[in-house]
Structure formats: structure tokens, C-alpha cells
Design goal:
Helix 1 packs antiparallel against helix 4, helix 1 (5-24) runs parallel beside helix 5 and helix 4 (47-55) runs antiparallel to helix 5 (59-78). The longest helix is centred in the first third of the chain and has 20 residues, at 5-24. Helix 6 (107-117) links the parallel strand 1 (91-99) and strand 2 (121-127). The strands form two sheets. This protein has a six-stranded mixed beta sheet with strand order 3-4-2-1-12-11. The chain has a six-stranded mixed beta sheet with strand order 5-6-7-8-10-9. It has eleven helices and twelve strands. It has two domains: 5-78; 91-314, Endonuclease/exonuclease/phosphatase (Deoxyribonuclease I, Chain A, 4-Layer Sandwich), CATH 3.60.10. The termini are far apart. The protein is an alpha+beta fold. Helix content is 34%, strand content 24%.
Length: 317
């Protein structure tokens, strides 16, 4: 049975709607926010309605589908284009960020990664008491002697905690507001300005309008860059570069280390037992004065997230 022009238009409509949402950043509420996480997959299939329009000999369907494909494809290409970052001639600082999947990540592998790159800061999400014990037993304190561990709050699962370990002296410890424990530490940088690092973990906006609202609140409550201190946000934002809320966070003055290195679409999460879907949920955001030399995505056994290894450069004092 030949494809009708009407059918070709109907087929093109979902991709066109998706493209409109992505272009305008209007992915508000449920289910638009969780659906937007899969924009790269919509882009990858956007050729289908174009072919349908051509086969149906429908000019309107073909142009509608082609426009949607251009918008969706452009969103993917934007993630591989490099954007300017800060100067890269300052003091080196190496940071590792990881979601431990309710403490299931192999602590020995985490400490081995810290050791292999000679990390200055380790920022962790979904840290359980057992994970803290495992990390200490693996020698994390020998490499990074200063700690800020935030356990899960009352009524929360054990994996709602977060932790920071660092070799730099901690001047001040605090907790960033949000659903989960997000430790923040102000670090003394020899010969430079203080550096504030926050281990981010926002609420996943997956299955309900309430979860989406909590996720949006968590992103909104994250601090902005400030003149008096250098800041870094590192961790599991549960947001992809396609989410309008994440792009609004960037517009508050943050620089995405992945965009500086042309890796904004590099997947950082996939299920433990199956290879798809693969999403970019973890990020390192830096003050514009901080340079980004490199960003690596590293597999760690036991968790569905990848570790981010950021090689940064801090400006002189």
C-alpha cells in the first residue's frame, strides 16, 4: 500500500515537535524533561520521516521533516564543537568526579584512578557508609588527606550521601542545598585564590512531575560563579546538554569543561547490564577564569556512571 501524503505529514509531526521543544528550550514538566534526555536518539532517526516524505511525494512533509532533522542534527553537532575556555597557563589541578551507584563502585579502582593521575580532588555522589570504609581501606586518605563526607539525611537511602577528598587544606565545609547530600568545600590554593568545589547530585527527573520539579529546584539552587572565590561544580547533574534547564544553568556564567574539549555529547551513563541507552548526565562546570586542558571519561567497575577526569588550570592570585 503506497504511503499517502497525509500519512507522511503525520509521521513527520513527532520529530518536528521534538525539534521545536529542543530549539526553544521548552522542555518543562513531565514527560518532556525525561524524554528530552533522548534527543540524540531522535536525531539519529530523523532521516526516517524525510524518506517517508520523499516516497509520498509530499513537499510539505519532506520540508517539515528535513527542518526537524536539521535542528536535531545541529544539536548533536553542537556538542562536538569546541567552545572557548579560560587561560591554560595557571596552576594545575586535577579533579576526579564519580557517581558510585549507591556505593557499589569498586573503591580500590576509584583510589587507583586517583593515584594514576595524581588527583588533587575527588568528588563523589551516592556514597554509602560502606563505600567510605572501602575507600579508606583502599588508601584514599593517604593520597588525599582532607575529607568532607556528607551522609544521607533522615529518611533517605544510604546512597543519598556525598563526599569530597582533597590534598588541599580545607578552609570551610558546607552543604549545597538540594535533595541529596552535596558537599562543598572551600580549598586553600598555595599562591592562588581559594577554590570552592561542590560534589553535585541532583534528583533524577525520571518518572513523575514531582521528580521533575525537584530536579529543576536542585539545578536552580546550585551556586553561580562569584568574584570572591573560584568555583567548580562536578558530578551527576542528571541533565544532558539538550535539557533547557541545564543550558540555563550554563548561561548563569558557567563553562562546561566538556564543551571546551569538544566532548559535550560523550556518554557518561549507561545501564550496568545493557549497552543502551547511553546518556551524558555527568559534568564538570568551572568558573570562566579557570582553564580546561583536558577531560577524560573513564570506566570504573561497579557503577553505571563513568568517572570524569578534569585537568584544570587555576589563575594566579
Amino acid at each position: 500500500m503506497p504511503l499517502t501524503r497525509r500519512a507522511a505529514l503525520v509521521l513527520a509531526a513527532p520529530w518536528a515537535g521534538w525539534a521545536a521543544v529542543r530549539a526553544t528550550g521548552s522542555d518543562h514538566g513531565f514527560p518532556l524533561v525525561p524524554a528530552t534526555a533522548f534527543t540524540r536518539y531522535a536525531a539519529g532517526t530523523s532521516v526516517l520521516p524525510v524518506v517517508a516524505g520523499v516516497l509520498a511525494r509530499s513537499r510539505s512533509a519532506t520540508w517539515l521533516a528535513a527542518g526537524a532533522a536539521a535542528v536535531l542534527g545541529g544539536s548533536v553537532l553542537a556538542g562536538v564543537r569546541r567552545t572557548p575556555g579560560g587561560p591554560t597557563d595557571g596552576r594545575a589541578l586535577r579533579l576526579v568526579s564519580l557517581n558510585m551507584l549507591h556505593g557499589r563502585a569498586d573503591p580500590a579502582a576509584v583510589v587507583a584512578l586517583v593515584r594514576s593521575i595524581d588527583a588533587d580532588v575527588l568528588a563523589l555522589a551516592e556514597v554509602t557508609p560502606a563505600a567510605v570504609s572501602g575507600l579508606l581501606a583502599a588508601g584514599v586518605a593517604g593520597r588525599l588527606p582532607h575529607a568532607h563526607v556528607v551522609p544521607a539525611g533522615a529518611g533517605q537511602p544510604a546512597g543519598a550521601g556525598g563526599a569530597l577528598w582533597t590534598r588541599l587544606e580545607v578552609r570551610e565545609r558546607s552543604v549545597a542545598p538540594g535533595r541529596f547530600g552535596q558537599p562543598s568545600a572551600r580549598l586553600a590554593v598555595p599562591g592562588g585564590r581559594d577554590l570552592e568545589v561542590t560534589a553535585v547530585h541532583t534528583h533524577p527527573p525520571t518518572t513523575s512531575a514531582g521528580q521533575v520539579a525537584r530536579w529543576e529546584d536542585d539545578l536552580e539552587l546550585l551556586p553561580d560563579p562569584a568574584a570572591g572565590v573560584l568555583r567548580v561544580l562536578a558530578g551527576d547533574f542528571n541533565a544532558t546538554p539538550d535539557h533547557g534547564a541545564f543550558r540555563r544553568l550554563l548561561r548563569r556564567g558557567w563553562v562546561d569543561a566538556a564543551r571546551v574539549t569538544g566532548q559535550a555529547m560523550r556518554p557518561t551513563w549507561s545501564p550496568v547490564r545493557v549497552p543502551v541507552p547511553r546518556l551524558t548526565l555527568d559534568h564538570v562546570l568551572v568558573d570562566p577564569r579557570i582553564g580546561v586542558v583536558s577531560l577524560a571519561v573513564v570506566h570504573v567497575p561497579g557503577t553505571d556512571h563513568r568517572a570524569l577526569v578534569a585537568d584544570l588550570r587555576l589563575p594566579p592570585g
